[in-house]
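Hey,
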Amino acid sequence: GGRDGAGTGVMTDVPVVLLGPQRHETTVGDVLNRVAPTGRIVAVTAGWQEREAEDVELNELVEGRAVNLALYRRAEAVWHRDADLRAAHRAMQDRLRLLRSSYILRLQHLMEAWSDVETLAGDPEVLDPEREAALDAVRMLDARHLERVASIRAEFVREAKPSERQAVREERAEIARAVEGASAVAIAGGHIAVLLNRLRLFDVASLIEGLPVIAWSAGAMAVSERVMLFHDSPPQGPGHAEAFDAGLGIATGIVPLPHAGARLRLADVARVGRLARRLRPARCVTLDGGEGLEWVDGAWMPLRSASQTRAARLLGIDGHVEAIAA
C-alpha cells in the first residue's frame, strides 16, 4: 500500500479526489476550486436520471464554470434514434439481471458457510485452513461473476458495435468537444448502474484521460476498479456485499464505500473483517458525508479541504475501522 496504508495500484499523478455524499455537507466546491481554479469543468450527473439537468447548485459552487455532459439525455436520444441498439442493450441488461440472480443465490450460501466456519471453536491448526478455504470460495465466486459480467458486456460491444452507430458517434463528438480544453471533470452520484452504463456507452473514460477527476458518492464507485453493492441490514435479504461490476479503473487500489456509516454495521468486528479480507489487496474505504480522499504523490491521503469535517476511514482486516492518516 501507499504510505497511508490505503493502497496504491497503478495511477498517474493526475489529481483524483473521492468524496462522500454532498447532500448535507458540501465539500465539492472547495475541492474543484482548488484542483481546477480556472477553466471549464465538465460535469456528469447521469446517475440522477430524469433530474440530470438539476445542476444549478453545482454550477454555483464553481462560479458558473460547469458544463453538463448530459449523458443521460444523450443516451435517451440514442435509444430513440436507434431501436436496434436499444433492443440489444435491453437484452444485455436482461442477461445481466439473470446472472446477478444466480450469483446472489450462490453468494448467500457461501457467505453463510464462511461465517459459520469462522465461528467454529477448536484447534486452529485444523480450522484455520478451512476458514481460508471458505474465504477463497467466496473470492472465486466474486471473480467468476465479474468475468461473466465482463464477457456479456463484451459480447454486446462485439455484436451491437455501439461506437460505430451514427447516433452514438454524433453524441460522442459533442461530448468530446465539451471535454476539450476542460480543466477538470466532476462526477456526481445517483443510480450506479445507470451512471456506469452511460459512461460506457459514450466511452467517456478515454475522453477524460489526463483530466483531474473529482467524484462523489456513486460517482466515486464508478471510477474505482470494482463496484461493490453493500447493505448490512437491507429491508429484505441477508445483506451480503455483492460484486456488481468493474468500474472505470481511474481510482485504483481501493473500494469506495459511500454511506458506509448508514449501510454497514461498522461496530461489528467480524463483518468488517470479513469484508476487508474478501476484497484484499484492495482496501475498503468509507466515504460518508464530509469524508474524502485524494491521490497525492503516489498514495491515497486524507482530503485537503477547509470544509472537510472528518477523514475517510479504512476497514481493517482485524475488523476495526480507523481514520486514514497523512
